[in-house]
Amino acid sequence: MNAGRLLGLEDASRGERALFFVTMGVMLSLGTVGFLRPTALSSALTGAKNWILVYFGWWFILLGFVLLVAATAFTASRYGRIRIGGPDAEPEFDRFSWLSMVFTVGFGASVLIWGVAEPVSIVQHPPPAPAPVQNASAESMALAFMFIHEVFPGLAMWYLPVAIAFGIAVYTDGIGEYKISSMLAGVVDKDRIPGLYWLVDLAALIATIGGIATTLGFSAQTMSAILGGVFGLEARTLTYAVFALIGLVFLGDVWLGLRKGIRNAARATVILIGVAMALLVVVGPTLYMLELHLDATGVWLSNLFRLSLYTAPGAEGNWAANWTGFWWAWWAAWSIFVGSFVARVSKGRTIRELFGVLVLVPTLFTWIQHGLIGGWALGPGYQAPIAEAMAAAGNPAAVAKALEITPYGTVLAVICVFIIAGYIVTSLDSAVFMISAITLGDENPNPRNRAWWGALLALFGMMSLELEEFSAIESLSVTMALPFSLFLLLVLYGSYVVARDYVRENETPIRDPRERRQQTASKSVSDDD
């Protein structure tokens, strides 16, 4: 077997092979430094993140608002009725499988990690005076910020523009190859600037891997903290073993493919999340959780734009940049992969249906999840021990401490470990599927090429256990996102241009396939008469 076939590159062009080797080389070099000199890498990444957030935190906050308005307007316009894949496209997945894949790939273990850590951290270190919301308790305002960052408007700002652009450019209008750069077709002609499309794909791959590595790092460190803090096990060694087991499951899923592997892992994870939330309602501080959830919801909805655009001008420090700026940068780095994957599994659905499954339904789910998890972490008897653990050992320790002091916490911890493992499997599955597809320009990339990308991402997940500071993991997404942020504005404008031309050139581009079949049947009857 030659090297090209072993790497799954036997049908790749010269540019695609270069894309594979350059991206692999850059990321393997970074991973090697992480294993050999974790302190130096931690320092460099943290320094880069801090510099970006100090000077460009405002940019991510502004960009998020612009994307929110533009993507929502696009969905509400006549273009929202465009069907991904064309007017005759049929949905490939049932609604539950579709929703499960979109949900698990779009969030990951951050729901659990930050659901505990962020509200407690904000209560301990609130926004500088004057407070952005007057007459709100510290707990309600902290949970309201959590809703802003990981419920809405975060959900509508970042994934949706890329999903719309990729779905329209690649599937509906058939522009170019199955690559991220194809979304530029409505803005820049491929031949006008030689090499531009290749550079865009390279930047997209690196940004995507950076965003995925951040989530895998969060997951690995949190799993290690739970295994060590709750069960008293040799956490790091066991986490490596768990990652090895996950790797075997992942390789099996790679050969099963999108329909069986990713779909089944996603469905199982969503079911486990439901079980965990039901158990949490029973064993947690139930009354406090529900009351705080409602009060924080009022603060969130009443001050939606105020909290979203809060920058604390003139105040000492960079509170807003370190929270909202960080979140939006992470979403931006993650959006290329999630948006393109969502478009892939949404063929046969309209843009408005896409808005529902990517924004409306997950908003309801994450609002429930974060309300329960945040109320649990902020509850009487929970907040102080969690804050102490987090101050001593970082955010993953906060989750472990919350489980440790909760009645039946070991049962909940077992479920959480399986949920985190499920998130890791679905993230790896879907990530390598899209990374390989983008590299090869093939909607259904071969398993061998996907396995190599999976090995690279697993390497980054394990490398995170060597980094001394949790903040170093956070830095990957922020550092990778900045140079790619302008691209999001370009692809949103490009999707408008492509959609406009597509609608003009097609007399009935938005018709429901069922309606078309009925009309075809009616025409056949008329012809027979």
TrEMBL record:
Residues 509-518 have a biased composition (Basic and acidic residues). It is found in: Cell membrane. Residues 519-529 have a biased composition (Polar residues). It comes from the Archaea. GO terms for molecular function: transmembrane transporter activity. Residues 509-529 are annotated as: Disordered. The keyword Transmembrane helix applies. The chain crosses the membrane at residues 18-36, 56-76, 96-117, 156-175, 196-218, 238-258, 270-290, 325-343, 355-378, 411-438, 450-467, 479-499. One of its GO terms (cellular component) is plasma membrane. It is a multi-pass membrane protein. Its main location: membrane. The keyword Membrane applies. Keywords: Cell membrane, Membrane, Transmembrane, Transmembrane helix, Transport. This is Glycine/betaine ABC transporter. The lineage of its organism: Archaea, Methanobacteriati, Methanobacteriota, Stenosarchaea group, Halobacteria.
